[in-house]
Automatic annotation (TrEMBL):
It comes from Amborella trichopoda. Its EC number is 5.1.3.6. This is UDP-glucuronate 4-epimerase. The keyword Transmembrane helix applies. It is found in: Golgi apparatus, Golgi stack membrane. InterPro entries: Epimerase_deHydtase (IPR001509), NAD(P)-bd_dom_sf (IPR036291). Gene3D superfamilies: NAD(P)-binding Rossmann-like Domain. It is an enzyme of class 5 (isomerase). Residues 96-332 form the NAD-dependent epimerase/dehydratase domain. GO terms for cellular component: Golgi cisterna membrane. The chain crosses the membrane at residues 29-48. Pfam families: Epimerase (PF01370). Belongs to the NAD(P)-dependent epimerase/dehydratase family.
Length: 434
């Protein structure tokens, strides 16, 4: 920078010691050499550059790069068709595409639909948010029951369109999402990617499908956010989310309204309240408390403001499955065709909870009894990173409209979870392998 004159035009070239000819000759050889070197460098760069790979530091890019890699072909189409085919004995069968089928709730509902004779096809991107081997184990179990899980992302519209070409879905059970409240501070874009962009991508394909399917999808009790009215009713305020996760679920509810209004899609949103049970999610407290208690680690128990109790309306997975089936069975047909609305369509939202919140310290006492191990506990103030002090569902609407009636209390449900957990994590020698 120092050699550039501050006033343009004042800079004078030094005289060259070479004759004009020699100067021209040398400069053309130099130019040629420079251009050849440049070509060589570009060529080498192409040769040694590795193919684009999913980047771990950018999950959005990683997920996008997953597209189109593992689907297609005759054998694949055959599996899609066979999985989506209802059993001949089933009267008025549903043909359901379950997104997030390798997940906790998705695997349970897929199995239940298949058992009663409906056609079921799963879709999941097997992301690494938690132990993928657990998702793979659920996949094998479903596979043995005749449910095929297509490996792909809901953001991949060409895959979605292809699935609609191969199978005539009557219903979509949309459970694929980036779950978890605290992880949003670490990886916010994954929430936007799956819960907002992914939902829109799915609705876009559904709206153009002919006939359009009816959609049932998972919202969350977290939309109640800072709401203090108890128990939480569907008509309560949901405009004060306490986490990005909650905000994306709330956005989903508004997006659902738009697609229902413009395109006549029949859409039912389900606000699940802390679902637990066998094959559950390792990022949830009841699950990692079990692991930590067995490993002799200290578990943190949150307390709310002013030493308040933190409580959750824990809902057993079988009750949630019944709520999902009830929603699918009562969903009316979408009214649009070819992307155009032909009349008003059903738009619903339901709480699916258990109506009896339990303090987290009671959850720990139940686990201690079932595991026969005393937990090492430390009480800490609930960090302000998205969790709310309590949840409590009013389920009268779901009771009335879906016949939803939860029947499993926390003690009974945790007993089943612990039995599964000890069996699942026991290695061949009978020791617990985490
Ligand atoms: N479990 C609960 O307590 C609870 C509470 C409220 C709401 N929910 C909602 O219920 C649904 C199911 O929850 P879960 O507990 O089974 O979670 P989960 O994480 O076990 O299941 C979600 C599945 O979706 C898949 N997925 C995520 N993003 C995807 C994408 N872009 N494309 C394709 N697949 C994708 C994941 O791989 C995972 O297998 C989620 O929408 C969640 O937000 C769950």
């Amino acid at each position: 920078m120092d050699s550039i004159p501050s006033t343009p035009g004042k800079f004078k070239m030094e005289k060259s010691p070479y004759s004009p000819f020699r100067h021209r000759f040398h400069s053309s050889v130099a130019k040629l050499l420079f251009i050849s070197l440049l070509f060589l460098a570009v060529f080498l760069l192409f040769l040694i550059k590795p193919p684009p790979s999913p980047s771990l530091s950018n999950p959005t890019e990683a997920r996008r790069n997953l597209h189109s890699t593992t689907w297609g072909g005759q054998a694949w189409e055959k599996r899609v068709r066979s999985s989506s085919r209802p059993k001949p004995h089933r009267s008025k069968p549903l043909i359901v595409l379950v997104t997030g089928a390798a997940g906790f709730v998705g695997s349970h509902v897929s199995a239940a639909l298949k058992r009663r004779g409906d056609g079921v096809l799963g879709l999941d991107n097997f992301n690494h948010y938690y132990d993928v081997s657990l998702k793979r184990a659920r996949q094998s179990l479903l596979n043995s029951q005749g449910v095929f899980i297509v490996e792909g992302d809901i953001n991949d519209s060409s895959l979605l369109r292809k699935l609609f070409d191969v199978a005539a879905f009557t219903h979509i059970l949309h459970l694929a999402a980036q779950a978890g409240v605290r992880y949003a501070m670490e990886n916010p874009s994954s929430y936007i990617d799956s819960n907002v962009a992914g939902f829109v991508s799915l609705l876009e394909v559904c709206k153009s499908a002919n006939p359009q399917p009816a959609i049932v999808w998972a919202s969350s009790s977290s939309v109640y956010g800072l709401n203090t009215e108890v128990p939480f009713s569907e008509s309560d305020r949901t405009d004060r989310p306490a986490s990005l996760y909650a905000a994306t679920k709330k956005a989903g509810e508004e997006i659902a309204h738009t697609y229902n209004h413009i395109y006549g899609l029949s859409i039912t949103g389900l606000r699940f309240f802390t679902v637990y049970g066998p094959w559950g999610r390792p990022d949830m407290a009841y699950f990692f408390f079990t692991k930590d208690i067995l490993q002799g680690k200290t578990i943190p128990i949150f307390e709310g403001p002013n030493h308040g109790t933190v409580a959750r309306d824990f809902t057993y997975i079988d009750d949630i499955v019944k709520g999902c089936l009830g929603s699918l069975d009562t969903a009316e047909k979408s009214t649009g065709t070819g992307g155009k609305k032909r009349g008003p369509a059903q738009l619903r939202i339901f709480n699916l909870g258990n109506t009896s919140p339990v303090p987290v310290k009671d959850l720990v006492s139940i686990l201690e009894r079932l595991l026969k191990v005393k937990a090492k506990k430390t009480i800490i103030k609930m960090p302000r990173n998205g969790d709310v002090p309590f949840t409590h569902a009013n389920i009268s609407l779901a009771q009335r409209e879906l016949g939803y009636k939860p029947t499993t209390d926390l003690q009974t449900g945790l007993k089943k979870f612990v039995k599964w957990y000890l069996g699942y994590y026991k290695d061949v020698e009978g020791k617990l392998a985490f």
